[in-house]
Amino acid sequence: MHSLSLALFQPDIPGNAGTILRMAACLGLSVHIIEPAGFDLSDKALKRAGMDYAAQAALVRHINFDHFEAWRAQEKRRLVLATTKGAVGYTNFRFDPSDVLLFGRESAGVPDDVHALADARILIPMHPGMRSLNLAISTAMVAGEALRQTGAFAVT
Ligand SMILES: C[S@@+](CC[C@H](N)C(=O)[O-])C[C@H]1O[C@@H](n2cnc3c(N)ncnc32)[C@H](O)[C@@H]1O
């Protein structure tokens, strides 16, 4: 298991969370879910989307953002927020193996105070006029680049 971690801020859609859990299990990443989520974390759709892989994912639940921040402070890890309001393109950002990569909820992203306290805000550049990518897709793109940069992909 890598120390690079994914974090989902109050996710709304179980299919997205399940897809991310499956990816995380395959790539050796832990996933931190900041509650409340918009669904029951034992939801069938979460299990269906994550398939049996979800059971192998390192899932950590935080009852709220303060709880997540207490964990992060203890670990002394940087918070890197993926946001459509980011200033730095994700391929131009230098990732650290201990980073926590935070993604916002499907319906609303993250609140302004969470946006402000992140150590860095990164963007996946999109064509003009497009609003946002799907949560699971953006998580895969950023995780792939972070793993590539930090040399953490399994070598074949
Ligand atoms: C469906 S989007 C949220 C859209 C929301 N209405 C907003 O304005 O933030 C869910 C999450 O995916 C990530 N995301 C989607 N597109 C992105 C992009 N182009 N660059 C960086 N992150 C993105 C962000 O973490 C975002 O909070």
From TrEMBL:
Top EC category: transferase
The keyword Signal is assigned to this record: no
Location, primary (coarse class): cytoplasm
Family matches, as Pfam families: SpoU_methylase
Places the protein is found: Cytoplasm
Residues binding S-adenosyl-L-methionine, per UniProt: 104, 124, 132
Signal peptide feature range: none
CDD domains from the UniProt entry: SpoU-like_TrmL
Keywords, in A-Z order: Cytoplasm, Methyltransferase, S-adenosyl-L-methionine, Transferase, tRNA processing
Single GO molecular function: tRNA (5-carboxymethylaminomethyluridine(34)-2'-O)-methyltransferase activity
Keyword Disulfide bond part of the UniProt annotation: no
Catalytic activity: cytidine(34) in tRNA + S-adenosyl-L-methionine = 2'-O-methylcytidine(34) in tRNA + S-adenosyl-L-homocysteine + H(+); 5-carboxymethylaminomethyluridine(34) in tRNA(Leu) + S-adenosyl-L-methionine = 5-carboxymethylaminomethyl-2'-O-methyluridine(34) in tRNA(Leu) + S-adenosyl-L-homocysteine + H(+)
InterPro entries tied to this protein: Alpha/beta_knot_MTases, SpoU_MeTrfase, TrmL, tRNA_m1G_MTases_N
Domain of life: Bacteria
EC number: 2.1.1.207
GO cellular component: cytoplasm
GO biological process, one term: wobble position ribose methylation
Similarity comment: family membership: Belongs to the class IV-like SAM-binding methyltransferase superfamily. RNA methyltransferase TrmH family. TrmL subfamily.
PANTHER family in UniProt: TRNA (CYTIDINE(34)-2'-O)-METHYLTRANSFERASE
The protein's name in its UniProt record: tRNA (cytidine(34)-2'-O)-methyltransferase
UniProt lineage: Bacteria, Pseudomonadati, Pseudomonadota, Alphaproteobacteria, Hyphomicrobiales
